[in-house]
Design goal:
With 211 residues, the chain is of the alpha+beta class. The protein has two domains: 5-69, no CATH class; 83-208, Four Helix Bundle (Hemerythrin (Met), subunit A), CATH 1.20.120. It has helices at residues 83-88, 90-104, 108-129, 135-140, 143-147, 153-168, 181-208; strands at residues 21-26, 30-31, 37-45, 51-58, 64-69. Strands 1, 2, 3, 4 and 5 form a five-stranded antiparallel sheet that branches. It starts with 20 loop residues before the first strand and ends with a helix. It comes from Levilactobacillus brevis (Lactobacillus brevis). This is DUF4145 domain-containing protein.
């Protein structure tokens, strides 16, 4: 074990457990651009069993300076969207992508709310694009009423189920604890497929009936 392990925080950054942190590995010292001596130590929380890396900084004479958490480099979920969705609802894509990023970096308490907001953009822009409501109606109607304007029962059920679980993500008590964020994402993807299918059918119809 590194003699500098004493400088590792005892509070886990993942689960906030204040207890035993076990050293997994350490590097040899190297010099930073600021001419500080740096040692990297990886520890594991014995509560949640997740690993964390820290940079420990020292002067060239060996005096301790500070400890910094190594921030992870991550790649958000690589979900591509059909051109019909890009054209219809850029706000949905932006919000969904931000929710996905929040989920990737462990912000699970706000990711679900982000997906719920993305759903509202998707539903609202769909009913507006297809002239199922007026602009004034879209402003005044709650999401549940906008969902009722969707043209088919299957898409209405997908949207309503997503909204219910999304609402659970914003409340203290969950009404449907057996369903989670993964279910919202699955149902939103199904809605996207439905919308893309309808757009494809419309393009084919326009071609066949262009005369």
């Amino acid at each position: 074990m590194s003699e500098n392990f004493m400088y590792i925080p005892r509070k886990c950054p993942h689960c906030n457990y204040s207890g035993i942190q076990t050293q997994l590995s350490k590097t040899a010292f190297f010099r930073s651009h600021e001419n500080e001596e740096v040692e990297v130590i990886v520890s594991r929380c014995e509560n949640c069993r997740r690993a964390t890396a820290y940079n420990l900084f020292f002067t060239s004479g060996g005096s301790y300076l500070r400890t910094e958490l190594v921030s992870p480099i991550f790649s958000p979920e690589n979900m591509t969207f059909p051109k019909s969705i890009e054209k219809m609802s850029p706000s949905f894509i932006k919000t969904y992508s931000q929710a996905s990023t929040a989920e990737e970096i462990g912000l699970s308490q706000i990711a679900g709310m982000g997906y719920r907001k993305a759903l509202e953009y998707l539903v609202t822009d769909f009913v507006l694009t297809n002239k199922l409501v007026t602009k004034d109606e879209s402003v005044k109607l709650p999401l549940s009423k906008l969902i009722k304007k969707l043209p088919e029962e299957s898409i209405r059920e997908l949207a309503l189920a997503s909204a219910w679980i999304g609402n659970d993500e914003t409340h203290y008590y969950r009404q449907n604890p057996e369903f989670q964020v993964a279910d919202i994402k699955e149902w939103i993807r199904a809605m996207i497929n439905y919308i893309e299918m309808k757009a494809s059918i419309k393009r084919a119809h326009n071609l066949v009936n262009k005369n």
